[in-house]
Design a protein that fits this description.
Blueprint: E1 4-7, E2 17-28, E3 38-41, E4 47-49, E5 55-61, E6 66-70, E7 77-80, E8 89-94, H1 103-108, H2 113-126, E9 136-138, E10 144-149, E11 154-159, E12 163-167, E13 172-183, E14 187-198, H3 203-217, H4 221-230, E15 238-247, H5 254-266, H6 283-293, E16 299-305, E17 314-317, E18 320-323, E19 328-337, H7 340-343, E20 356-363, E21 368-370, E22 382-386, H8 387-390
């Protein structure tokens, strides 16, 4: 079964930062000013720290961005910016973390073989398996603490401080304030707040990063949403088809599979998947044939609408952009081919040559709202699979990124 990936840190679209400023102060719950608190717009490279009075000034973005306020040992605040916030001074009061890692837990943490194994699994699920992922390094890995639920086979992680990841492939240091992380055999879920800081190197390095960032942008979810907003999907090499998922008639029902397993277990029949049971002669052969077919996918993808029109997936209501469609969208990007790492990652089925980058998208709500800049207001409204599931933190760009003009 192909792994499914849910990326839950905010997929807002980049925008131009205006001349207006957001000003404010950060205090503790006892009204003490917090110096060096981090204030930034989520998933961007725009951020500041507070002065000794807890005050800050930060450029105001044009769009629906989240302002994040964080300080080690305190609960992070995520604030949805409002249009009139530029006319007033914002005040944030931080409360001590209620789920802060106990010092006893920290002292008991053993950086043993099991911890390093969990770190490897965490890294693959969080940063990825791509070529860019090879150029990423978690600078403070020992801030991560793992817990494994053996009954449900779920690995969870929490941190005592924001993670710092150096991405030498794209030229950023990423600060990731992890809220939650859960990894099962089929799904990975993580949520947090992201801040980018550009690395500074010579001109040759900067040119290399510029090209690498453009390549990461091409075909990305950010690229797709911008092209959708600008009505330039065809010009930007996107093809969108529509499909639905239907039950696989070749796969036995869950009840048939359960009965077959109980029969084989009751009569202590060894399961031999290499045995040919095309023409079962006994009840054991019939049960084994059912078990072998249980490995088939539960559903099949049935394409029914090619080259989906904008009206079938995107509309405007009173100047509000709405993403709304039925079933699933298959989003094909013809501008670049898949990485070979993708073909070997488990996200793609079959032994084949690299083809166009193909992703699947479905809505988890009736519709998803985009603001005027193309920002997805509710990141939980969209679920993706395929190539976008393969591209993880290593491929992400700050939302204030601007691609190279054609």
């Amino acid at each position: 079964m192909r792994p499914i990936f849910t990326l839950l840190f905010l997929f807002f679209i980049g925008t131009i930062f205006g001349q207006n400023k957001i000003v404010g102060k950060v205090f503790s719950e006892t009204s003490e000013p917090l110096e060096n608190a981090s204030v930034y717009f989520n998933n961007t490279s725009v951020g500041v720290i507070t002065n000794n009075n807890g005050s800050f000034t930060i450029p105001q973005p044009e769009g629906a961005f989240q302002l994040v306020v964080s300080y080690i040992g305190y609960e992070t605040i995520s604030y949805q910016l409002k249009p009139d916030d530029a006319t007033k001074s914002l005040v944030f009061k931080l409360t001590p973390q209620s789920n802060m890692l106990d010092e006893v837990v920290i002292r008991k943490q053993n950086y043993d073989e099991e911890w390093y194994y969990n770190l490897k699994r965490f890294r693959l699920a969080f940063i990825g398996q791509s070529e860019l992922a090879k150029d990423c390094e978690i600078l403070n890995p020992k801030a991560i603490f793992f817990s494994f639920d053996s009954e449900n086979r779920i690995l969870t992680a929490e941190t005592r401080e924001p993670l710092r990841i150096e991405n030498k492939g794209l030229g950023y240091v990423i600060t990731y304030d992890l809220v939650s992380f859960a990894l099962s055999t089929e799904k990975v879920f993580f949520k947090g707040y992201t801040k980018y800081k550009a690395l500074e190197k010579g001109r040759a390095k900067m040119r290399k990063w510029k090209n690498a960032r453009q390549e990461a942008y091409n075909g990305s979810m950010m690229h797709f949403f911008r092209a959708l907003q600008n009505n330039t999907l065809k010009e930007d090499n996107f093809i969108v088809n529509q499909f639905k998922r239907i039950p696989n008639p070749a796969r036995p029902s869950d009840i048939e599979i359960k009965v077959a397993r109980e029969y084989l277990r009751k009569y202590k029949v060894a399961i031999n998947f290499s045995k040919d049971v095309s023409y079962p002669l006994t009840k054991s052969d019939s049960a084994l044939a059912i078990i072998k077919k249980a490995r088939l996918p539960k559903t099949l993808d049935a394409l029914y609408n090619k080259n989906v029109t904008y009206e079938r997936m995107f509309t405007m209501h009173d100047d509000v952009a709405v993403l709304a469609f039925e079933n699933y969208l298959s989003i094909v990007y013809n501008g670049e081919k898949e990485e070979r790492n993708y073909l070997n990652s488990g996200y793609s089925e079959g032994n084949r040559s690299p083809g166009p980058q193909t992703s699947a998208m479905t809505l988890l709500t009736d519709q998803a709202i985009l603001d005027k800049t193309g920002a997805l207001l509710d990141p939980l409204a969209v679920f993706v699979e395929g190539y976008w599931a393969f591209e993880k933190l290593a491929e992400t760009l700050p939302l204030d990124y601007s691609p190279i003009e054609k």
